[in-house]
Amino acid sequence: MSTLYAISGVTGMTGNELVRQILAGREGSDHILGFDNFFASSIETVKDCLGDGRFEFFEYDINNKVQMEDFEQRVAAQKQRYDEVIYINCAAVVHTEHFYHVYDTFETNVTGMNEFLQQAVRVGAQKFINCSTSEVYSMHSWNESGGVREDDFLTMSDAEHSQRTSYAVGKLLTEFFMRDAVDTGKIKGCSIRFANVYSRNERFPKHIIPFIINSFQNEGKVVLLENSRRNRRTFLNNYDSCSAVLALAGTDSALDGTVYNVATDEEISMVDLAKLCGAKMGIAEPVIEFEGYRESDPERRLLSTEKIRTRTSWRPVVDLDKGLDECIANYLGM
Ligand SMILES: NC(=O)c1ccc[n+]([C@@H]2O[C@H](COP(=O)([O-])OP(=O)(O)OC[C@H]3O[C@@H](n4cnc5c(N)ncnc54)[C@H](O)[C@@H]3O)[C@@H](O)[C@H]2O)c1
Predict the structure, then answer these.
(1) If I label 271, which of 22, 75, 179, 244 is the partner at 20 to 30 A Cα–Cα?
(2) Contact call for residues 188 and 252 (beta carbons, < 8 A)
(3) Pocket mutation for ligand 1, best pick of 13, 97, 103 (most atoms within 8 Å of C-beta)
(4) Are 178 and 161 in contact (CB under 8 A)?
(5) What confidence category does residue 187 fall into, taking pLDDT thresholds of 50, 70 and 90?
(6) What CA–CA distance (Å, rounded) separates 45 from 68?
């Protein structure tokens, strides 16, 4: 079995690790065409793979029609050599700083995703994996029985509180595009709701883990939002987000157009996360200050992953302890 992969956002946290895991598998029979516009990443994340003839990279923008036509032609030209073609959409405007601005996220996350899906259908790809987000659970991101489930009813009517949910609404719409394409027999596929992906090679210290490490390193303290006094989160290493994508892509029976939560259940408060990073960096009494407040930020985000665990053999393997060690070693050049 050989596969031609078409991956958007390929230098991002999930995309770059996908490349690594695909190249490491199946004894050289697979090939990857990937692109990214470096909005939130750089070529550095895949530099160890660029010399491999099975990976072709293009500095393309998912919203650029000419570039996407070229990408489509390249997939069409190569697809006969492979048993199947799998599209994986990782391109997105992801950081929280953009969530509150509806136009920052709409074009890439909604229109761009749908165009990429239609491209996959046109070229006759067998499968499409849509990376969505646990943000769709909004302020109801947990429940008392061990985590929110995919089939729990969503309450998103909070436009009166904050624009934040506009990002989630856009991502939710992509889940409907995915579902429609499968229900109408155009392609197989599914959507994945990730929770708080992190990576040792994030380019900018915007997500919380690199932010904490960089703050301790450069400022000698970390300044967290007031929300952090209460907020708790789980964190998903990009090795595990990526292995979930491949586990689903490799399980035809799971590609029924529905949604899968992908997360860990290792919950930690923001304050304890900062203390843990400090301890791992050898700081005896880490200085943690609080400033600023983020509206409509859920206090917890705890997902049930029973569905993916039941339908595939996927399990997360990088716990927070190991993942933080890798991040700290990478950021501090240890
Ligand atoms: N990081 C998280 O915590 C998280 C949580 C939930 C869902 N997700 C979803 O997972 C998917 C993968 O995200 P990630 O964690 O790898 O984040 P990421 O920001 O590291 O990767 C996204 C990639 O998309 C690229 N990109 C942005 N706009 C683009 C455009 N117009 N054209 C081409 N490329 C573009 C960025 O440069 C980046 O490399 C996304 O769909 C994201 O919404 C991520």
Answers:
(1) 244
(2) yes
(3) 13
(4) no
(5) very high
(6) 22
Residue closest via CA to ligand 1's atom 20 equals 12
Going from the Cα of 144 to the center of ligand 1, the distance in angstroms, rounded, reads 30
The predicted-structure confidence for 21-51, as pLDDT tens digits, reads as follows 999 987 679 999 999 999 999 999 999 999 9
Residue nearest to atom 21 of ligand 1 (CA): 12
Dist. CA 89 → ligand 1 center (Å): 9
Distance (Å, whole) CA 166 – CA 153? 18
For a mutational test of ligand 1's pocket, the pick from 197, 202, 259, 303, i.e. the residue with the most ligand atoms closer than 8 A to its C-beta, is 197
Phi then psi for residue 54, to 5 deg, are -85, -5
If DSSP codes are grouped into helix, strand and coil, which group holds residue 127? strand
CA distances from 243 to 75, 143, 180, 292, 314 (A): 23, 26, 25, 36, 7
How far is residue 130's CA from residue 15's CA, in Å, rounded to a whole number?
Answer: 12
- What does the angle CA 42 – CA 97 – CA 278 come to, to the nearest 5 degrees? 75
Query: Three-state DSSP class for 66?
Result: helix
The atom of ligand 1 lying closest to the CA of 236 is 3
Ligand 1 atom 34: residue of nearest CA: 36
Rg (CA), the chain: 19
Residue ranges of domains in the chain, CATH in brackets: 3-195+237-265+298-318 (3.40.50.720)
Q: Which residues line ligand 1 (CB under 6 A)?
A: 8-9, 11-15, 36-41, 61-63, 90-94, 108, 112, 131, 133-134, 194, 196-197
Which tens digit of pLDDT belongs to each residue from 162-171? 888 899 999 9
Q: Are 130 and 147 in contact (CB under 8 A)?
A: no
